[in-house]
Amino acid sequence: MEGRDLVVHNNIVYMRTTSGLQRVDVIYRRVDDDFLDPLAFRPDSSLGAPGIFNAYRAGNVVLANALGTGVADDKAIYAYVPAVIKYYLGEEPILSNVETLLMTDPVARQHVCLNLNKYVVKAVGESGGYGMLIGPHSTASMREEFRARIQREPRNYIAQPTLSLSTAPCFVENGRMEPRHVDLRPYVLFGERVTIVPGGLTRVALQKGSLVVNSSQGGGSKDTWVLQG
C-alpha cells in the first residue's frame, strides 16, 4: 500500500479498503524516517501518513523496522555479521554471509582496486541499486571512476565477489520466453517464537544478463510459489 491508503483516527491506524476502514496492527515500511509522517517530520512529504508517528508512540501500531533502525542498512555492517552473532549469541553462524571487504582496509582496498572486474562495489549508504558497480558488466571507464571514488572515500564503499544468481523463465518482448536473474527475500517474524512466513518477495532483473533486480533500476517482481513438502 501507499501512505495515502492509510488514515489515522484517535491514534489508531486504518487502511482504506473497498469494504471500509480496516485496522492495521503492524507495518513494514519502505519509507525513510523523514518521510514517514508530515506532522512529525518533513511537512512537505506526501509519501507517509499524517498521524502515524503518534499512533506508533501510543503503542497502537508496530513498525517492524522502527524509526532509527536504518543504521543497520549501512552495508559495512555485512562484514561484522559473523562477529555480531558470536558476540551476542555465543554461537557460530549456521549460514555464511557473502564475503564483504571493507575499503578502509588498505590491503583489501588495493586488492579490489586491482581487480574491479571481479567484484561488486557498493556505496554503504545507498539503496535501490544506486551507487553500485558490477565489475564483470562494467566498462573500463566505469571501473576507473569507481577506483577514484574508493581512493577518495574508502569508508563509503564495500566490495563483494560477484554471485551467480538463479534464473527463472520470463515472458519478454514479442512473447518470447527467456531466462532472467532472480532473488528471493524471505520474511521472518520474531516474537515469542520465530516464524518464517511462507513465500516472500521474488525480485527479477528484467534486462537480459543483468544482475540488478531493484525496481528502481528496471527490475520487477514475480509470483512466489510455495509447494508443500
Summarize the structure in short:
With 229 residues, the chain is α+β, with helices and mostly antiparallel strands. It has helices at 52-57, 81-89, 106-114, 140-152; strands spanning 6-9, 12-17, 20-23, 26-27, 62-63, 101-102, 119-123, 132-134, 157-161, 166-171, 177-185, 188-190, 194-196, 201-204, 220-222. The chain has 4 helices and 15 strands.
The helix content, as a percent range, equals 10-25%
Radius of gyration: 21 Å
CATH class membership of the largest domain? Alpha Beta
Query: What's the story with the biggest beta sheet?
Result: 4 strands, antiparallel
Give the beta-strand count: 15
Taking the alpha carbons of the first and last residues, their distance comes to: 32 Å
Q: Tell me the series of helices and strands, N- to C-terminal.
A: EEEEHEHEHEEHEEEEEEE
- The total domain count is 3
CATH architecture of the largest domain: 2-Layer Sandwich
How large is the count of helical segments? Answer: 4
Overall spatial form: globular
Protein described:
It is a single chain. The chain is an alpha+beta fold. The protein folds into 3 domains: 67 residues, Rossmann fold, CATH 3.40.50; 90 residues, 2-Layer Sandwich (Dna Ligase, domain 1), CATH 3.30.1490.270; 57 residues, no CATH class. The strands form 5 sheets. It has a 4-stranded antiparallel sheet, covered by helices on one side. Strands 10-11-14-15 form a 4-stranded antiparallel sheet, with no helix packed on it. The longest helix is centred in the middle third of the chain and has 13 residues.
